[in-house]
Amino acid sequence: MADAPISLWHEFKKGLWQDIPPFRLVLGTCPTLAVTNSVENGIAMGLATLFVLLCSNVIISAVRKQIAGQVRIAAYVVIIALVVTVADMFLAAMFPPISKALGPYVPLIVVNCIILGRAEAFAQKNPVLPSVFDALGIGIGFVMSLATMGVIRELLGFGSIFNFKILSEAIFEPWIVMILPAGAFMVFGGLVALVNFISHRRSSGIIS
Description:
The chain is built from 9 helices and 2 strands; from the N terminus they run ααααααααββα. By secondary structure, it is mainly α. A two-stranded antiparallel ribbon has the order 1-2. A hairpin with a 2-residue loop joins β1 and β2.
């Protein structure tokens, strides 16, 4: 019992760096590249994914012993689709501009490899509480990733953050490429390289 808090902390913190989805596991790259032309869209997409991941992890973990192995993937998809529908309808009702900006990418959470991956690799093998911490860690790591992409792309592409002008056009001409698909790939590749570089330095003991 004494080791439980340490175990739960480990399940949480791994998603913040060791298993951060887009940059270490290279999962969830479709929304990472598609909706991060602004910080607002990136955070909204990340929070929607976090909600779906948390709810699906809890439900799948709670009913895992009642799901036959032969149909578990199909059952996971049905559960995830139900939660995604709730998230999509909530965004459409409460935040129509954000829902319109995210377009089809919220419904596509159903086939997001992060959600299915955590269901298969963790939730179906573990009790509810560890599954909650796993979902929170991975989900928050995903939100951080999309927010970071959004900050870089919006700042360089529009000269603003959260639509608040930071860089005046008198001193900085926005890089239009940053709000285009090519800019998304450039920023994504740079961040993957940076994360891998830091991880390598840490594993070598150069960075504590």
